[in-house]
Amino acid sequence: MTPRTSLVAGLFAACFLGSALASPAQDLFDQATFLIGFYYNGPAKVQGFRELRKTYQPQLDQLCAADKDKCGFEAARKVIGNIIQTIGDPFTQIMTRSELADEQRYGAGLGPAAPRIGVWTRPAPQGLVVVEAFPGEPAYEAGVRRGDVITAVNNAPATAQALQSAEAAKNPIALSVSRQGSAKGLNLTPRVAEQSMQPRLDINNGIAYLRVYHFYASDSFSPAEAIYNAVRQATQRGAKGIVLDLRDSLTGYDSEALLAAGAFIPKGGFVYDRRFQGADETHTLENGQLYNQPEGQEKQLENQVSQPILTNLPMVVLVNRYTFNSAEMMAYFLQHAGRAKVVGEPTAGALGISGNAEGPLINGEFVAVASLKLKNLDGSPFPARVTPDVLVPEDLNALSSGRDLALEKALELLK
């Protein structure tokens, strides 16, 4: 993902066909179809914005038949959702203002803005299986760990919606938590996360475990810098191997993922295939330095880490179906270079595309559009997703019984 940008106002004004007399639904529909039809450059075949409007206008007319002049945003949002579902690439989506604000917080080294107890969960018949408990947040401080099962939220069966609603209420939450059949009750008060989503390092039995949640960056925080520092610490503490865990990892900035890869590979890169500018843009990594070279121009230094380190420790990368976009790229750079074995599930499928969140839309949301295709430095296209060298499907039953099968395989390979 490239850094989020807003649409150039003059370009939009020239192409936006809505009028002040149209309904809110029509105005939103016209704006979103322009953004998608004009910018889209992903794997799907998408019509230009005028044709896109002609194709989907009947859907909007049907939803707005009862009150065409006053038809609200929700009708247009439903049609836009249908367009995005038909396109079918995971990058192109509607984003809320709060989601975009969270990304900006990630880039500052913080967690989401809304109070939470600090877990990622997956639904299962027995409740919500914890797949991540963030150090420094309420659940972790109360002893909740990966593999625990939340069976009840405020004395009701645990569901994702129930937990989200309880966190949003900002009141203390009563949880029933089970660990391998042993249950306990907890009372947790949600709070705003601070630095809990920064990369974290643990070393056990000579193996460094490096967990990375995203690749968003800013002037004040760099995941790449944190990864170099973690590799340095692992080396100083005598680690004999590294497990890089990118399971459930969010996206971020593509260039940040490439820069982070420099802790493990001396060289690498990718090429942005741009739709409208008519010129490619090449990003290359050389010994902890990141260069940017638009087609026909000189190569320029884009970014660098303050203290580069290149480790040759054996390593394994963990991925799953939720490893997304820039995180997929990190895994791909290491696999493609022959530097690491990848273990887990095929990734989300947003590896070969990137782009921006355009807007704001007139309802305050944004639409993320896959406007860039990625190529290797030799001109070959990126694959759609990372295919693991060793396939280990996620097994929530095993996890809730205390076994992390993908991590076990990683440790086995490192032996």
UniProtKB/TrEMBL annotation:
PDZ domain ranges (all copies): 125-181
An example Gene Ontology CC term for this record: outer membrane-bounded periplasmic space
Listed PROSITE patterns: PDZ, PROKAR_LIPOPROTEIN
Enzyme Commission number(s) of this protein: 3.4.21.-
Pfam family, one: Peptidase_S41
SUPFAM superfamilies: ClpP/crotonase, PDZ domain-like
Keywords, in A-Z order: Hydrolase, Protease, Signal
TM segment ranges: none
GO MF assignments: endopeptidase activity; serine-type peptidase activity
GO biological process: proteolysis; signal transduction
Leader sequence segment: 1-22
Protein origin, superkingdom: Bacteria
The keyword Phosphoprotein is assigned to this record: no
Name of the protein: Putative CtpA-like serine protease
